[in-house]
């Protein structure tokens, strides 16, 4: 029997599963659509009810996949999507949100993120987010790929303190955020969403990770996910188009890795000793 999925509480008080589902690279090939939809549905059936997508993924194709996967069960799902920086003007943000809603055939995005910093002032984008929130088109808004200085700038603009999450590249092999960004966000109860938690599969080939995984009769990917699930206020969003792999991802919640083995992994994947530039994929 699996352990229950841990949860993370958003600033609004809403709780979401700490293990969700990503959709990067979905919606790009029609031949894979049915498999991608089935994978997301399998995750929902298992309680991985947070689905992360973006208008950038497949240029809207991933959002269409999400819409088909959640059809008839919208109330179960916490939907996250993102606006391109070059669409993040006053009018552009609202228009982009409307297009995303139409593609997913829903009337509300639960969490809407600015995908990364662009040319438009943060105050302008935040004002548009607040308009969308007041209209009920989004439940909350957040950002992605923001480092500490970006977050501090954000909190200084009107309503910037309403930021509900920051989605960044974070996994066992990319731990730079642990030096300052992660604790900064934890102190302010701003959840971190960790994208590419298995480094797009590359971590699964690391010999030290393979060795420890075998000790637990687990996969390297499961250990990599367990690493993130150990962190307070962190939501991991692995992407897979394989329904069987979805179930394997979920089994990460039941792994109970010893302090000794975590120390071994720290030696192989050292935590940062100094500030590093925020990494992106």
From TrEMBL:
Active site residues of this protein: 57
Annotated site residues (Lowers pKa of active site Tyr) in this chain: 82
A Gene Ontology molecular function term of the record: oxidoreductase activity
Ranges where the NADP-dependent oxidoreductase domain occurs: 19-267
InterPro entries tied to this protein: AKR (IPR020471), NAD(P)_OxRdtase_dom_sf (IPR036812), NADP_OxRdtase_dom (IPR023210)
Residues binding substrate: 115
Top-level lineage group: Bacteria
Gene3D superfamilies registered for this protein in UniProt: NADP-dependent oxidoreductase domain (3.20.20.100)
Membrane-crossing residue ranges in chain numbering: none
Pfam families: Aldo_ket_red (PF00248)
Protein name from the UniProt record: Diketogulonate reductase-like aldo/keto reductase
Species the sequence originates in: Rhizobium leucaenae
